[in-house]
Amino acid sequence: MEKDLEKYYLAFHGAIDGIVFIDCSSGLIKDCNPAFEKLVGRPLEELKKTNIWQLRPVAERSLAKKMFEEMASGGARELAELNIERPDGTIVPIELRVKRISQNDDTFLVSIARDISEKKLIREALIESEKTYRAIFETAGVAMAIDDENTFIKLANSRFAKLTGFEIEELEGKKSWRQFVAPKNRAEIYGSSHERKANPEKIAPMCYEFELIDRYKNKRAILLDCTSIPGRKMTVASLLDITDFKASEEEARKARNIAETYRISEKVKAELLSVVSHELRTPLTSIKGLTDSLLRKDVNWDDNTKKDFLESIRSETGKLSRLIDDLLDTTKLERNLLKLKRRKGTILQVIEAIKIDMECLTEKHQVIYDLQDGQSPLFIDKMRIGQVILNIVGNSVKYSPPSSKIKI
């Protein structure tokens, strides 16, 4: 028995936390260990003359007395945080556990008190640090969110809420970021997220583009930058809305294409003008030469020669007419004014309509017609089809030697 008492005595006096016995009827301190004396800054002799609530700061004593009376009659208090005041005025925050016990005819409150000054400083520092980081997180110039290992959003700032169309309270702990990712991007982003959380040391921060779909099914182009939180299966993601930039980029691309088309068009136009100038000059020169010859007064041309001259003039005039028609058609095409006048007709009808022009073009060549299906009904612009045939035949004449066969 004495050995057991000795053990309890050693435990009482050697305890790190302060232990104090308080008389339930008077509130006076009956006994305490050295740790409690050190905690409150008073010796046991002085404490035995002190009511427990007198250890509290003056402003808190009335409430402390009421609290003591409740505990003296009601039993235990698991845990409470309160302040005590040392004789030098130092305020010490403590954590207090209280239990009501009875021995013989006496009733005591046994209290265990622990100095939590350092703990409180650490907690306050953590709270302040959290406020600072939350302020940085909230005032960042981009949308930000932190997810957990199941892809649910743990934290989101107001920009992220605005981007997705939800309130922060609707997002945190309730929504997975996967629902905001377009199906075409979902597998890639989820795969990268899973790898990053499984091997945070090996996977570098990722940056890529994806399509975000908000609450109202609106689509936005997003530049995503994300990285893992060390020691946690969580990811910090920042999202930059680049929809307007992409639209501007697309407009710039279209403008470049238009500029390139215009440049090519101008080049073709210049080349066409050069070719047309040459092509126009040739028949004009022939017509002028033949006309001047016919008008010569010092030469008496016979009828056959005059006829040949006139046939040549007619041929060159036909060429000139076709060139002018081509120029007019080119202008209409540029202005999108060229309209097709489709009617029922046949290829034979087209050939018949251009027969005279064809003869002028092919007077030095042999034309072979193979038009077995020439009577088949078609819905065509006969004049334009005729122009196409004349152009093709004209090229055949131009690039083949005289007397060559041209098959139509």
Automatic annotation (TrEMBL):
PROSITE patterns per the UniProt record, alphabetical: HIS_KIN, PAC, PAS
UniProt key word Phosphoprotein: yes
GO cellular component terms attached to this protein's record: plasma membrane
Task: Identify the keywords attached in UniProt to this record, alphabetized.
Answer: Kinase, Phosphoprotein, Transferase, Two-component regulatory system
Per UniProt, residues of the Histidine kinase domain are 275-408
> What's the catalysed reaction?
ATP + protein L-histidine = ADP + protein N-phospho-L-histidine
Enumerate the InterPro entries for this protein: HATPase_C_sf, His_kinase_dom, HisK_dim/P_dom, HisK_dim/P_sf, PAS, PAS-assoc_C, PAS-like_dom_sf, PAS_fold
Q: Which GO terms describe its molecular function?
A: histidine phosphotransfer kinase activity; phosphorelay sensor kinase activity
What's the Enzyme Commission number for this chain?
2.7.13.3
Q: Output the Gene3D superfamilies linked to this UniProt entry.
A: 1.10.287.130, Histidine kinase-like ATPase, C-terminal domain, PAS domain
- In terms of superkingdom, the source organism counts as Bacteria
Q: Which residues form the PAC domain?
A: 78-128
- Look at the named UniProt entry and state the broad enzyme category this protein falls under: transferase
RNA-binding found in the keyword field: no
User: What are its GO biological-process terms?
Assistant: regulation of DNA-templated transcription
- Domain PAS per the UniProt entry, residue ranges: 129-189
NCBIfam families this protein is in? Answer: sensory_box (TIGR00229)
The record's PANTHER family line, in alphabetical order, gives: OSMOSENSING HISTIDINE PROTEIN KINASE SLN1 (PTHR43047:SF72), TWO-COMPONENT HISTIDINE PROTEIN KINASE (PTHR43047)
Spell out the protein name for this chain: histidine kinase
Q: To which species is this protein native? A: Dehalococcoides mccartyi
